[in-house]
Amino acid sequence: MTSDRRVQVYPLPHMPIIKDLVPDLSLFYEQHASVKPWLHLTPEQEASKTETLQTIEHRKGLDGLYECVLCACCSTSCPSYWWLGDEEYLGPAALLQVRDSLSLSLSLSLSLNLSLSLSCGVVI
Known about the structure:
By secondary structure, this protein is mainly α. The protein has a domain at 68-124. Helix content is 40%, strand content 4%. Helix 1 packs parallel to helix 6. It is elongated, with a radius of gyration of 18 Å. It starts with 16 loop residues before the first strand and ends in a 5-residue tail after the last helix.
């Protein structure tokens, strides 16, 4: 708030602006999709006629991870993302999804996500 009690509103920092306060989040969403943040079943799980259950302990491990609404606030406020976001660093939102995938007991095709995160220098 300014001294004359006006509120100033700005677009997300370090993002290209499409118009007024609307940033271009194309790269942000491409990076998110690149970590394949969806459930990957093994061939045995896909062939099974029963559902694959998750343990209570594994479910507790997801608390605090699935609430992300992809608003891009964490990535646009991250200095590493400012400098490397269009090159090699995926940013906090995408890396949270990698961490989320590694926490799921149901997701057994993790080699892609793990190798992707390790190539970014991330310790999970």
